[in-house]
Amino acid sequence: MGIEAALFVSIGGSASSDTVTSYQTYGSAQSYGNSTYSNATTMPIRSVSRANAVPILLEDLSSENTVWIGNAETGGWGLLDTTDEAIARVLAG
After folding, report:
1. How far apart are CA 72 and CA 55, in angstroms?
2. Angle CA 10–16–19, to nearest 5
3. In this predicted model, what pLDDT tens digit does every residue of 21-73 receive, in sequence order?
4. Confidence of residue 1 (pLDDT cuts 50, 70, 90)
5. 3-state per-residue secondary structure call for 3-72
6. Euclidean distance between CA atoms 41 and 86, whole angstroms
7. How many Å apart are CA 86 and CA 84, to the nearest integer?
8. Residues facing 39 on adjacent strands
9. Phi, psi at residue 8, to the nearest 5°?
10. In principle, which of 2, 40, 51, 62 could form an S-S bond with 75, CB 3.0–4.6 Å?
11. What predicted TM-score, i.e. pTM, was given to this entire model?
């Protein structure tokens, strides 16, 4: 008994997106006498997503006919902090 069928799995198309959905602002203020000093940093909040399609074929090797066709999809999304401080925290472990 030999090999009767082959399963072909190939990486199909993929799509990704990156959108700024909002901004987060951090700041502080200090008062000394009649003067107030302040600083603020604004950071973009990004929404990222990615999807991949994987077509799958099952072929009968003796007849060379495709006997089954399937598809698998993967995807994910989340919010991303791209400030220098966030990247430094990741690199520092």
Report:
1. 6
2. 175
3. 888 888 999 999 999 999 998 888 888 888 888 899 999 999 999 999 999 88
4. low
5. CCEEEEECCCCEEEEEEEEEEEEEEEEEEECCEEEEEEEEEEEEEEEEEEEEEEEEEECCCCEEEEEEEE
6. 14
7. 6
8. 28
9. -105, 120
10. 51
11. 0.47
The tokens describing 21, both together, are 């959905």
Which residue, among 89, 80, 78, 81, has the nearest Cα to 41 in the 3D structure?
81
Tokens matching residue 67: 């006997």
φ, ψ at 4 (rounded to 5°) = -100, -30
Q: Which of 89, 83, 93, 90 is nearest to 26 (CA)?
A: 83
